[in-house]
Design goal:
The chain is mainly alpha-helical. It folds into 2 domains: 236 residues, D-Maltodextrin-Binding Protein, domain 2; 236 residues, D-Maltodextrin-Binding Protein, domain 2. The protein is 46% helix and 11% strand. Helix 1 packs parallel to helix 5 and helix 20 packs antiparallel against helix 21. The longest helix has 27 residues.
């Protein structure tokens, strides 16, 4: 539904932008709070050219803001906080001397996308705004509505922020660069890592099964689970591998997805990949798909995959795992959270992660996700475009890594415990390998009881949680299921991924083309039907060949041409 909304939004935006350019430029030019500031004043020069220098006078800015449920603060010391006066806005005011004024507020997702569209159509673009996709960013650039942030990034992005963006090998900033100019500060989407196979280790131990590496190992374990019923469900009632019926594969970080099995055959469903000759091709229609589908269909036929996958809901899938009806699923490094409730229902349940199935050389191949899904832009004509990079530097460098004021840190921790945000701008900036980057330092801290070498304030909070989990486990106390899930994902699984042989395939296109809004829904439906029919045996794997022909005729060939044109023009 969200995808459809974004496409509708893009079409509307393209239609009306041409007639709103003048309105956008003229309506907001009066909102230059610091107009007339002395460009040679050392205090202003420092503020405009350094990451953390405060402005000598308060700089007010309008912003498109994601709504926060501040009623969650009722009864706390922060009761009465709001969108312009909360822990985060006070922090920005104290450190940078800036003050937000929401031009609009909206709930995250579809509601926010619609408010962005309305702001642009009405000619009332805020000074700062996060746009929800690349297509919107491109339209804003082409219609000359946003500021060039090249110098702002060079001068006021902190060294750590630059290091973070560099960890993506240039992919993130490149997405926001047009004609050599950086036109937005992109969100970073950290690596989701390879697919992780989660298995009931207590079942494996009961049956004397060894840890899996190959696809053959996995099939053997699944066969033993289903046939020998180590969970005591009754003959024929133990379910095989749990699989998503809407995202069988092709989503980076996809829960219950079979990406690892497809990648064994060099297949990358739903991804635009380089065919080796510099041309983008759609992974779902490549010949490598067919043998992968044949293998998965064979597993289904043998009962090694959930026989009812086609009709399961998300709640059904989770319940199969937490209730002990199934002991296997593919997820990612955070998969422990999926089955955390298992410990509440059965304290003896032991879920263990594996980087598997592996190729003959011991590697697992994964495709990388979209490195940036949203973009922070600045209205053209706003006097302080550097505000964007200064705010990013303060929030994702100074506050996260350098802030030592315990009172300030407690306030942020309190907000977090109450699940309240309050950020004037809602994006995230973090290292590509964030989930395992500091795992060795954390392991050392837990082993020695000395957290002094931990890198970030977030690490210190996590350390306290993990240490309590380990202390409870050592003393024989019943561990909290959430504490277990956090430790298992961020320590056990992160360390395992860090030490594994992971190969990456980077897709070459994540955007939209002119034909996609009209044709892609039909093509996506055809693709999903193909997966389900072949896997469940309604059609043989040979039906894949006809699917490819139909996909091309129904618009796939046209879209493939458009994707390559878009890549070339970029």
């Amino acid at each position: 539904m969200l995808l459809k909304t974004k496409r509708t939004f893009t079409i509307l935006l393209a239609t009306v932008l041409a007639v709103t350019v003048v309105g956008c430029s003229s309506t907001n030019n009066a909102n230059n709070d610091s107009a007339g500031t002395n460009a040679k004043d050392p205090a202003w020069v420092e503020a405009k050219t350094t990451p953390f220098g405060a402005f000598p006078e308060t700089v007010n800015y309008t912003v498109g803001q994601t709504a926060t449920n501040f009623t969650l603060l009722d009864g706390s010391p922060y009761e009465g906080d709001n969108a312009t006066n909360n822990v985060w806005t006070r922090y920005f005011k104290d450190k940078l001397n800036i003050q937000n004024s929401p031009k609009f507020e909206a709930n995250d997702g579809t509601d926010y996308s619609q408010k962005v569209s309305m702001a642009i159509v009405s000619g009332e673009i805020p000074d700062l705004m996060v746009v929800p996709d690349y297509a919107t960013l491109q339209q804003l650039y082409e219609n000359d509505l946003i500021a060039d942030l090249t110098d702002a990034y060079k001068n006021t992005a902190s060294d750590r922020i630059k290091e973070i963006y560099d960890s993506y090998g240039g992919r993130v900033l490149e997405n926001a660069t047009f004609d050599g100019k950086l036109m937005a500060i992109p969100t970073t989407e950290i690596s989701r890592g390879p697919g992780i196979l989660w298995l009931r280790k207590d079942w494996m131990d009961k049956l004397g099964l060894e840890d899996p590496k190959s696809m053959q190992d996995i099939e053997h374990i699944l066969t033993q689970f289903v046939e020998k019923d180590p969970g005591g469900n009754g003959a024929g009632k133990t379910v095989g591998l749990v699989v998503d019926n809407e995202n069988v594969a092709g989503v980076s970080g996809g829960q219950y997805s079979l990406n690892n099995i497809f990648s064994l055959y060099g297949a990358y469903p739903k991804q635009w990949i380089d065919n080796g000759s510099g041309q983008a091709v759609y992974g779902s229609v490549q010949p490598e798909m067919k043998p992968a589908l044949r293998k998965i269909a064979d597993m289904y036929k043998k009962g090694l995959i959930d026989r009812q996958l086609a009709v399961r809901t998300g709640d059904d899938r989770k319940a199969l795992l937490t209730s002990g009806k199934s002991g296997a699923f593919l997820d990612n490094w955070w998969g422990s959270w999926t089955v955390a409730d298992s410990l509440k229902l059965n304290p003896d349940a032991k879920w263990v992660p594996y980087v598997a199935p592996q190729s003959e050389d011991g590697s697992v191949t994964m495709f990388t996700g979209n490195p940036s899904s949203s973009y922070l832009v600045v209205r053209k004509g706003f006097e302080h475009p550097e505000l964007a990079t200064k705010m990013i530097s303060l929030q994702f460098d100074y506050q996260r890594y350098q802030e030592k004021d315990e009172k300030a840190l407690k306030q942020f921790a309190d907000y977090s415990s109450l699940t309240v945000g309050g950020y004037p701008i809602t994006i995230n900036v973090d290292y590509y390998d964030a989930f395992y980057r500091n795992v060795d330092i954390m392991k050392e801290a837990l082993a020695t009881g000395d957290p002094s070498k931990l890198v970030s304030n977030n690490d210190i909070s996590a350390y306290n949680s993990y240490k309590k989990f380990l202390d409870d486990e050592k003393s024989g106390a019943k561990p909290d299921s959430n504490a277990w899930a956090g430790y298992e994902s961020s320590i056990t699984t992160a360390n395992m991924v860090k030490e594994s042989n992971i190969k990456e395939v980077s897709p070459v296109f994540f955007g939209s083309t002119r034909s996609m809004p009209l044709k892609w829904p039909t093509l996506s439906k055809m693709e999903l039907e193909m997966y389900l029919k072949i896997i469940t045996g309604d059609q043989t794997p040979d039906a894949f060949d006809q699917f490819v022909v139909s996909w091309n005729k129904t618009g796939g060939e046209v879209i493939t041409k458009e994707v390559n044109e878009a890549i070339t023009s970029k």
